[in-house]
Amino acid sequence: MKINEAIEQFHSYIANERRMAAGTVRNYIADLQDFSQWLELQQITDLGEISAREVRAWQMEHMDRGENPGTVKRRLSSLSSFFLYLRRHNLFDSDIMAKVSAPRQPKRLPVFFKEGELEHLYDEGLFPDDFIGQRDKLMLRMLYETGIRRSELAGLKIQSVDFSSLTIKVLGKRNKERIIPIESELAHNISEYIALKEQEKGASEWLFVGRKGGQITTNDIYLTVKKYMPQLSNADRISPHVFRHSFATHILNEGGNIQAIKELLGHADLATTEVYTHVTRQHLKEVYSHAHPRAGQKKT
Questions:
Q1: What are phi and psi of 290, to 5 degrees?
Q2: pTM of the model
Q3: Where in the sequence numbering do the catalytic residues fall?
Q4: HSE on the CB side for 266, CA within 13 Å?
């Protein structure tokens, strides 16, 4: 079978049968067409002529151009899905992608807000004294004090808050529930906000609502963070997820237990949480280099 014919069949499969998102389909097909065009330059047009050698050579060409390792890895993922489809439909025999290694990506440490920056969330006058201002204030404080994801924040209902036990019930990824403790001051803030919400927007099962009284969207939360945090922080990246990084990092800096933080964040694997220990070590190094009287001394 001709390569371009196989790509057309795969295109129809992922778009019509699998019903993948339009952006995903577009990326897959763009990567496959790039591979096909490269193969044509090598005078290869039939599926049976492709081996792991061609895939590795195509990969190396992109890497030699200085392409980001993450982009190269995505391209290889597109090829893997394509060849898996071909094998399952008896259009290709060999699992050639098993012989191809994706480029290693350098680990990026999580970006987090400094503790001093987040203390300004509690300043008087930062937020307007109307309903939206009070809602925004509570949302940002909850992001920091609970470490929840913005999708989880948007999904909170009034009944998610247990004022007697000072906890909130969060529905996380894969519909997994977890319980997060809250401070009495935050619980009081939530109670006051609920009373204001009912007065301004009427009854609603959702804890956080938009201007028209419906459930708040994750984009609303993102825009709220982008509205306030550039005034308070010089972090390289500003988003709701940076609050989650800050929550974990600050607890670790204060001697918190990594296993407990894993449970609070709702991570399935401890390895995901352990990235914050690297951030903490870096923090300790910076403290040492700035504070220890011998840190800046050269060896003689």
A1: -90, -25
A2: 0.64
A3: 149, 173, 241, 244, 267, 276
A4: 18
Number of other residues whose CB lies within 10 A of the CB of residue 196? 15
In 3D, which of 225, 196, 88 has the Cα closest to residue 208? 196
84, 88, 94, 95: CA torsion to nearest 10: 30
Greatest Cα pair distance, the chain, in angstroms, is: 73
Kindly state the helix (H) or strand (E) to which residue 277 belongs, with its residue range: helix 275-291
Considering the domain architecture, whether residues 277 and 136 belong to the same structural domain is answered as yes
Write the pLDDT tens digit of every residue in 232-253.
Answer: 999 989 999 999 999 999 998 8
Are 219 and 129 in a shared domain? yes
Same domain, 251 and 121: yes
Note whether residue 237 is domain-resident. Answer: yes
Q: How many domains does the chain have?
A: 2
